Amino acid sequence: MELYINKFNLKYTLESGQFFRYAQKGEWYYCHERDKTFKIKQKENTLEFYGTTREHITKLFGLYSEYEKITKTLSKDPILKKAIRQFNGLRVMQRDPWETTINFQCSTASNIKKIQLNMNKLAEHFGKDARFENETAHLFPEPGQINNLEKIKKCSTGFRAKYIHAVNKLVDDNFFEQLKRKNYIEAKQELVKLPGIGSKVADCICLFSLGKTEAFPVDIWIERIMQQNYFDNKKVSHKEIIEFANTKWGKNAGYAQQFLYHWGRNR
Q: Considering only CA atoms, which of 249, 162, 258 is closest in space to residue 204?
């Protein structure tokens, strides 16, 4: 199947720390999300993909957003203007909230390669197997199925294992549907009540799966970038950074975060 797209870059979007269960083989990206396995590639303004639907691709890669309007507004900021020019086409994805939650629980004090390892092992140990192009693919387990603490530990999750095990008992798809109907502040307040979910992880879940584009996740990369470019290299708290971002960029703060994060990591 094919989909015409404008102002979209598949490589920048997939490789910007939003999505972890993929592998590049030649010009194709082989992707796994929840119960879906598909492959996708981009040639200029056309996406070619197999294994899923146009509706799923459009939602997953944030192709419905008013991208040109958002980037035009953000480009009034000279720092963001540089980042947007370098990584034009980078989108904020909208992923499955359950997998995203486990995903960013694994991200605490970790790195992208380690998160990929954790997620792939969890799918292998707890998910169902499926066939795609004559190879075995591991689907991500449903809520309630990551239910063996010792097996979770075998997925190289370390101290995060007990939190993953606990959250698996507490949430289901209906929980996330209810969060989507709440505003950003309310949704974040509910998320930080869960074991092992602090401000940064809650903001990642809000931004990448619940459509709360004002969320501004702060990790060590964003802390460094913000202090260098907006606080004259002064040490400031994550709370101060979030308040600054929400005041400066409002509903577009999440898009600003993604451009700054990817730009900072690739400098």
A: 258
**Contact indicator for 34, 139 with CB cutoff of 8 Å:** yes
User: Which CATH number among 3.40.1350.10, 3.40.190.80, 1.10.340.30, 1.20.272.10 corresponds to the domain 97-209?
Assistant: 1.10.340.30
Q: How sure is the predictor about 267, in pLDDT bands with cuts at 50, 70 and 90?
A: confident
**55's tokens:** 């509706």
Residue for token pair 């691709």: 57
pLDDT tens readout for residues 209-240? 999 999 999 999 999 999 999 999 999 999 99
Strands of the sheet containing 22-25, edge to edge, are: 2-4, 46-50, 36-43, 28-33, 22-25
CA dihedral angle for residue 95, residue 44, residue 135, residue 91, rounded to 10 degrees: -10
Q: Cα(first)–Cα(last) distance of the chain, in Å?
A: 35
Residue (of 212, 136, 224) closest to 179 by Cα position? 212
Question: What pTM value is reported for the model?
Answer: 0.96
The per-residue pLDDT for 227 is: 97
| Mean pLDDT, residues 152-168 taken together | 97
Nearest to 82 by CA among 74, 92, 94: 74
140 in Cβ contact with 127 (< 8 Å): yes
Sorted by where each begins, the domain ranges of the chain are 2-65, 97-209
